[in-house]
Amino acid sequence: MKANYHTHTERCQHASGADESYVKSALAAGYDELGFSDHCPWPYGGRFESDMRMTLQQLPGYLSSVRSLQKKYRGRLRIRLGLECEYFPKYTRWLRDLKEENGIEYLLFGNHFYLNEEDGRWFGAASDHRWLSEYLESSLAAMETGLYAYFAHPDLFMRGYREYDDYCTEVSRELCRQARRRNFPLEYNLAGAMVNRRSGREGYPHHRFWEIAAEEGCTAIIGTDAHDNRWLEDDQYRLEGQRFLQGLGIPLLDSIPGLPEPDGH
Fewer CB near the terminus (10 Å): N or C of the chain? Predict the structure, then answer.
């Protein structure tokens, strides 16, 4: 089965293309299943405004749009409703309630900030051991919640970290070891692969991280991380990723385990 569960919308302020455009691109590229997982809004207090996610006021429109597309394309494409979320301890109960009360099918874990976005450090700019330690700490805590379906771009820290040193290896090994123990899939991120190719620098996905994931017996799932509907129509990075992971002997999932069969399919 050809599927992608990591799909954004214009609401996150750094993606383009109407919601239905992603569906049409997925159909054109022969997908069987498409999951929308735009960045989760959080109930921030005070005057803080995020520049990388929808607002709480936009959430009902997001839910309504995806559900409308599910009905419109029933029988042609399975469309899933999800969100990409960080691990923010003070909002964990809120997030659990949000998922249950709104019938959200899955949550992806994207570890972008340490503990909160308002003043937490962005892990894409990780530059020293302290950042890696915080990344590992929050990643392990997130996995323990049981809230998330899989770990999106688990090697995100290599966007800023300049060298895969011994400490980086140590952190990666512990992260992968715990992911394996919890049967928590790791995502091979195609948006990152595209940035690597265009920049000429290996950030994420990073080959050394995935070698460690293979050594620790982890399972992988490929995520397009689509911020433009046209990314779904280009299979170049998907095929390269599949060959790389298969060469390492990493088992590849083609769907999120445990998702219920949608009505009408």
Answer: N
